[in-house]
Write a structure and sequence with these properties.
Layout (H helix, E strand, L loop, with lengths): L4 H12 L5 H11 L1 H17 L4 H27 L18 H6 L1 H35 L1 H4 L12 H37 L4 H55 L5 H28 L2 H6 L1 H11 L4 E6 L6 H22 L4 E8 L2 E8 L11 H11 L4 E5 L6 E8 L3
Parallel strand pairs: 1-2
Antiparallel strand pairs: 2-3, 3-5, 4-5
Amino acid sequence: MATPGPLRRAYHWSAAHAPWSAWAWRNTALVAASIPVAVPAMLALAYTFSDPGHLLKTLGCVLLLRPLLTLLQRSRLWSLAGLDIPKIPWAHRWYHPHGILPRLRAESTWRQYGYHLLVSPLTALGGALVVLGWAAGAGCALVYSWVWALPEDYRPPGWTEQYTAFTVLGVVLLIATPWIAALIAHFDNRAATVLLGPNRAKELERRVEDLAESRADILDAADLERRRIERDLHDGAQQRLVSLAMNLGIARATLTDLPPEARAVIDEAHREAKEAIEELSNLVRGLHPAVLEDRGLDAAISGIAARAPFPVALTVDLPERPAPTVEAVAYFVVSETLANVAKHARATRCSVQVRRRAQLLTITVGDNGVGGADPAGGTGLLGLRKRVGSVDGTIRINSPHGGPTVITVELPCGL
């Protein structure tokens, strides 16, 4: 037994696009409603064509009526087609002294001119044809229902065959008119979206700028939060551990008459406290070292190089300090890269070069290790790439097997 699916779909499609369907009447109402809105523009065009010297008067008239016409068109499209055309943002209202010239110079104003003077009259003419098509189609299709009212003298010989042809013509018009209305409505929607609304390229550019600013604010907030955590750990937990270690040291030095088991416990607790202080110091230094905020990137990177288990040739050329967020990322890049070299590269020496030229901070880290660094092979280089990308930076890794490895990072300082 054949499935009724295709037949049912064909039936539903035909019903949805029939002359009596909501689709047909919605498109008809949309294009018919464009007729009264286009009357001012059509009168202005007729006035201009009667005498080309009236062009400036026409443009001035349309300029004064443009906000009202745009509002009416947006309302028509929203209420009848569900098309929401965003408003064009302006710094001042049109009647403000600083609001007239920007509107005259803006390309959006001339796009709206194009819609009101070209598209709107064409849509109105199409709407008139659609209304005429409905009226003519209904009159011809129903000719047999009203022809009896005509006097006999108006019925020529063979009128039955002629009225049958009128009926067929009327049915064809009733079937074709909704599609003509749909075509005009589609043209009107596309033209209104392009000409009445904001420029999509500029809107996307503005959106990108807003996103860049919001991302910069988020990065600054995250950097401030790291600094707050660093201060809390340094001034709170670390100081308590230092006090605990001192008390344990005093107890070990003064309580000499304790049993060996108790002294062993105190010694162990003292050693654990000192190790906890060292681990917490490393953690605080990794979050946001105080020297980075106080003395800048040069001093902070020098501290990293001094703690490395191999010689590090350090070159820092910074005519001026970059933004705090960029400094934090640069510090993280050098710290993480040297840590990776110490863990995996089996290198005996390393070089770090930090230079700023205009608005670009370049960091180059090279070693004489075994090479073969792969960003997909672990989380270290992947995290490095993400951290650099958070400020629109770039990273290049050149690490052939057998070495050497050179990592180049470029960070924009204008963040």
